[in-house]
Amino acid sequence: MSGGAGRVGSGVGSGLVGTTELRARFAAALSALYATEVPAYGTLVEVAGEVNADVMAADPDAAQRLGAIERVTAERHGAIRVGTARELGQVGQVFAALGMHPVGFYDLREAAAPVPVVSTAFRPVDDDELAANPFRVFTSVLAGDDRRFFDADLQARLEGRLERRELFSPLLLTLAARAEEAGGLDPEDADAFVRLATAAFALSPEPVDAAWYAELERVSGVAADIGGVGSTHVNHLTPRVLDIDALYARMTGRGITMIDAIQGPPGEGAPVLLRQTSFRALSEPRRMRGADGQVHEGALRVRFGEVEARGCALTPAGRARYDAWTAAGGTAPEREARWRRLFPDGADEQAAAGLTSVRWVPVPDRPRDDRGPQPDLARLLADGWVRAEPVVYEDFLPASAAGIFASNLDGTGERDAAEGASHRDLAWLSDALGREVLEPADLYAARTRASAEEVAAALDLPPLAPPAADDLDESALRA
């Protein structure tokens, strides 16, 4: 099928290109596209590779505790923004063809630096799929009816423009539905699908209505990036690095302007959750149409290069501690001292305290002692009967996401806090998508429970409950 026109193949038969391979091809094609659009992204990937090679050389076992280096090297997460529930549903269909499910609800309107969007992340959820290619796309949809950001007149004009645009061709959506149903596409259709899907996220050469874009930008730079143009595009594409502090220093040394800080938890101790940073959004040439209809050369600053370092997922109790730590604020020394009071440095200590999500694995050929294994996972870990393998945190942090968005905008826009918010929650997101949005905590807990059951069976023990964390000691949050 040439140029995305012609016959749509049946999508059945033994020669299918499966969804896993489709996802890998799409991730590679999107990365190649973004490197041509944002050359500094190529530098970011190069430096991440150098850092990862150095970390691997120093201690290969430690470097791969949270995933094999092949996975880390291939790992990317993208970010896109759409304007309406209809567009969001279409995005969900495209990513379903790639074996990617909507996971999590993020309300960036409530962040310290509010952005008028709610978001989810499309990603694989099965262990084998994550190991094969853990491509994720953080996807935000505009809350155009939120009166804190948009009055009724602006909402009506915005929605009118959004309803008239077409982000994804009918052929792409047809192929996507077929791939989801059949588990893949025949080779000809697979090539067409990847080509069409990649093109859908390319930066459009169409001129931007300068006055309309500026009107939305007064509300939010993110609102302008979504509703001020006729298409969507990759907002950033993020490689994974094993030492984000080293990368930050090396990028700065190469003359790349980074944002002011690394977002997320501190770097001390066993890594948890997600640490992120980025280079500052670059001024990109864009064709602009003035009020007189004339097109001139202009520039916009909306796209940037993000990089991430991933740690172990937290249990709900661990996440409560993290959220309390984030809300406490304070100076850097105060934040570090609080962190050390809330989280042990060692990965095993974190697991035994019920703070992290892990896979419990029986230790093979362990010499038996007279006492034998005790029916307590923390005790089994301390006695050497089991080991705790960290479960990689595959999701995102709304405060960090909003912080990076804000760090890459020239201004925060306008927001009338006296007005009421429009309703958005996980159920709204599921309805908009026509698909269940999965809860990240449920996915991590299921892995931990399943592994605890396997340990009990292997060691001939009664059912084992994962360790329960102590209640949060509020005094630990004091400066």
From TrEMBL:
It is an enzyme of class 1 (oxidoreductase). InterPro entries: HGLS (IPR009770), YdcJ_bac-like (IPR047869). This is 2-oxoadipate dioxygenase/decarboxylase. Belongs to the 2-oxoadipate dioxygenase/decarboxylase family. Its cofactor is Fe(2+). The keyword RNA-binding does not apply. Its EC number is 1.13.11.93. Pfam families: HGLS (PF07063). The keyword Secreted does not apply. SMART domains: DUF1338. It comes from Pseudokineococcus basanitobsidens.
